[in-house]
Mannitol-1-phosphate 5-dehydrogenase
Amino acid sequence: MIGGSEHLKEEVYKHLDDAIKVKVDKFIGFPNEAVDRIVPIQHNEDPLFVSVEDFKEWVIDESQMKNKSIHLKGVHYAPDLKPYIERKLFSVNTGHTTVAYTGKSLGYSTIGEAIKDEQVLKQVKRVLRETRSLILNKWNQEFDESELVAYHEKIVNRFQNPYISDDIARVGRTPIRKLSYNERFIRPIRELKERGLSYQALMETVGKIYHFDEPKDSESVKLQAMLKEEPLEQVIKETIGLKDEAIIKEIEASYQAAEK
């Protein structure tokens, strides 16, 4: 959840009187944070036993802290959280679902199976190359290219970890949400286009999302029903929230190419 600590503050303040709020404002901070760690679907008898990957990243917005001298071990403190949130969204989230939708189109049922396919691996690397160009264009003061290349290589290695392989049905669920205006595919496509940068691989993946047919996922069922009942162009407009006719036409072409 983006802005989780701010939301917590709003909920806490609903239960405080004005005098207490003044004291809380003085001594207690609610810094937002970005946490990155893959937690796959669990198959443990003990519900308190949770399997996670070795990789972990915890970034805290230092500007929202009351006592900036307190630093926890293993935590990165940043003056602005937005670059790190976008890096994670456009890398881990975009990359993971790219593996899911590409893998699904090839008949795979798990991320672990899919990422072994050279076609899937190539596609996720192409997508990350495009999102990397966007991140560098926007946040070149925070990240350099060699750092981002290493970060993306580490992400691909995480997807290849057989011990945290997840079901494609779970990773790819809620396709309508994932196609929306500010989500992991349409947002980087919009921003890459604004900057005159390539988004071909991202567009190819978007076409596959519209073919994601998972009977146990209500959004997938709804999307497939929309595609049967409405013109493709109308479905695209409803799901991505864009009026850019050129992008809509590109998505139509990508959808049709994914049928073949």
